[in-house]
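Reposting from the mailing list since nobody answered there.

I have sequence plus structure tokens for a pair of proteins and want to know whether others read the tokens the same way I do. The first protein:
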Amino acid sequence: MAPRSAFLLVSFGGPEGPDDVLPFLRNVTAGRNVPESRLAEVAGHYYRFGGVSPINAQCRDLVAAIEKEFAAEGPGLPVYWGNRNWRPYLADTMRAMAAGGIERVVAFATSAYSSYSSCRQYLEDIDAARAGAGPAAPQVIKIPPYCLHPAFIACFTDAVSTALATLPAGLADEADLVFTAHSIPMAMSAASGPAGGAYPAQLAEVARLVAAGAGRSSWQLAYTSRSGPPAVPWLEPDLGECLAGLARSGSRAVCLVPIGFVSDHMEVMFDLDVEAAQTAGTLGLALARAATPGTDPRFVRMIAELAREHEAGGGLAEAAGQDRAPLCAAGCCGSGAARPAGRARS
């Protein structure tokens, strides 16, 4: 008899070959009137890496690590995986769970923060997938944003120390820490919480905690992947502008810390490892880049811990007839504006 409960990894999805790139980008931007020229521009980032996003391979590795952790420490749940924008599609995974007799699901998204794009949109896609699976669709509890979990902080703290050690002799101690994340429209940020939004506030707190763990009190937060009409304000400063400002102030070295991501998405590989590296080289800055959590055992244990908490107490067992209450307040993480047209990489 099939188990009645399951764990679901929900991710963004990404192309796995050149022929996938444009169909994937059209999935991401469906209904947003994005010009073909913009899609072609973003597609070029993927073609630079053989038309393959790293995210699906990273999800396979994470699924395997979660299954191993579950087998050793619990919970005893089967692990499923579904993407919002590419195979395996979330809708197909939801139908498979329904067909397999799964009635209750705890879902974990590969996005750690609060905002429409990083949380609420995942909830909407889960709801749509459930609707598509029909009356047999399982009830779903999505684990809320986990960016401040000590394990998440610890992974980045150690990654900073490792990255600093790669800088030329004598530069590690003076290197500036620059924390990076995907930019979003200011209206969307404001809708994610009070006083300008939960998203930038969470990023700033993660940056503060990681910097403190690395023995630093000085740091900067910068954003990447800004897109859409120039007249629409997005979170700033842009990473390139931040690097230029540091160079003008006399900085000789920078350590980039991509706290906005749980693994090395295309935004990390292109925006940091290509564009930022080129900018730093032009500015004469030595550059190091900290790793993302990926399949760090502490991150995997964190996922298992959260799954146990939500599967046992205050989660699935008490969620009869409720898809996500009481984890998300009504109206939280609203879009605040049209969804960003250019968020098409992962």
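The second protein, same order (residues first, tokens after):
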Amino acid sequence: MTSYAADIKPLFREGDRRSMLGHFDLWSYEDVVQHKNAILGRLVDGDMPCDGSWPAEQVELFRSWIAAGTPA
């Protein structure tokens, strides 16, 4: 099973976290769950992270984590 701590949090690099801290903390489970749909939308659109889009496999991992109920 995919979990935030083991699978999702490591996808967000220090630079990604810094660039988003004015809005929410990508290293906070609660923040990511609260903004999961907006994050997914930005990932799908290729707008996030700001230095280039994630590979399709990582976007799908994030999508499947949401579908699984966002396990911690």
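Reply #1 (J.P.):
I read it the same way you do. Residues 4-67 form one domain.
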